[in-house]
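Task: complex structure prediction.
Instruction: return structure tokens for all chains below.
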Amino acid sequence: MSKKDFFIGWAEMPDADRRFFLKAGAGLLIGAAGVAGFVAASQRPVGRGTWDLATFKAFTGIVTASPYPMLRTRDIDGQVRTALLVCQTKCGVDLRLQNMAGKAVVINGSLIQRVDHASIAVADGPEWIREADAPVDPALAFPTPEPLGEITLAGEILDSKCWFGAMRPGEGKVHKACASLCIRSGIPPAFFARDARDNAALLVMTENGGRFGESLLAHVADPVEVTGAVSRAGNVLLLDVSADSVRRV
Amino acid sequence: MTHGYRAVSWMPFKKRYDFWVVGGILTYIVSFVIATIATQPDGESLTELQILIRATGTLAFLMLSFVLVIGPLARITPRFRPLLFNRRHLGVATFVIALVHAALVILWYHGFGTLNPFVSLFASNPNYDALAGFPFESLGVLALTIMFLMAATSHDFWNANLGPGLWKALHMGVYLAFALVVAHIALGALQFEKHVAYTVLLIVAVLAVVGLQFAGVLASRRPVDAAADGWLSVGEGAEIDDGTAVIVRPAEGEAIAVFRHGEEIYAVSNVCRHQAGPLGEGRIVDGCITCPWHGFQYRMADGTSPPPYTEKIATYATRIVEGRVEVSAMPNAPGTPQAPSRLRSAP
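Output:
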């Protein structure tokens, strides 16, 4: 018996094993491409959210701090829109807003947008906000929320920044930890509701009219049912609930 | 073997093996990225980093599954032994891909917040008491830890210094790692991606690993051979092909490989000291018994690796009774010289 017909890694490879090894290698490459293509093509679409990280622009409007930092502006698409204000990373801007609430301001940031929902990731550093040089359109003043009634909704609690486009996907179980970290760090939580007719809506969540604390974190990204009061403030829907009313389904 | 250690004892076959492994990895990742971008609706694709998280995650699982089926495939057919020879490189590559997956997840999902990313990894999802909501990340961390221990001890240095038994036991942890990864996927990605293809792929991979393990065990299982007066019957000496062995299994102790070399009959333990490969499925090459898994060699006369190597295996006495070969059920101490039996007297 010789090394010529018995495979030993440190010796010359037998012809039969060499042929098999070449076929196996070629099969590996073809199989890798095929399986990768199949697995990738089976992923579900994750939504139309975008975040143009590279483009910073000035947004002029009126800013508020309650229930979350928001800016009413025409500088998104020419219409009066409300944009949630967040940091470039996973944090809110409450502490950076200081005494600017209620004033006409110019904010420097990059736009995160998903269809009608918008958020502005404000620039780092103190230059992110300044008072506007001239008076702004009075229509940009924040409207008093209009109560729409009590409702029970089924859906998912998520963080607004990721779902608007900072991440794709920005929802579901795999994104749960990130959403939890974002909300813990000050990003406004939102409720994505879908009814039996597949109508979907996104509502910014509040507790007793103010911002949510960590009481919501255990339920983030789970399939849940909530009961609360819905109101409309401009183009933003608000859902005021108690964390105790959140129920996993 | 044990006379000295280098990080990698390169040889032409290992380079060819690694070439295909790296080629397969790159092909998978590039194909995954292209297919994701090409098949998602315009403007609705995943972010680039999240595509890489999925590409590396799915690839690590497929590679781990493949690593686990190489062993049984090599037991079922010798054709797969070339894949077994350098399997440790494939295992280390699997760990590296899994590590990249974990690093990207920690950076993207757990970084940039007010919590330490490693605290966030375990604390962001507190639902440890729920099944569907279970924090699947922790299962992935456990699996990665096991894979790290295995990758770190994959070198022959650890094999020799931990001893084959402990080393083998440690590396059996790969099955626990595989189970943890399956749970990590089932309680994580499959809770979001509902396409039936993912569930089918996971089930097929699990069935392939479990099924081939059973098939491999069945293929290498041997009934216990009965001993009479301490001697086991091997069979007609003329029926043993020159340079090969017949494996017999005593009621107690290791299986025995009975080799024929010309007219001489030698018997040694069937268990290679390197990674417990089946020596009886090997050959006599250059006058040495050669393991079919990694080419470790032992002299027939005393079961000792030729210098400068030092591994030793047990030898056994043999005898010829009316043309039939018999082997003693009692092993000699490893490395003990043992004279061969002769099928025919020397002229």
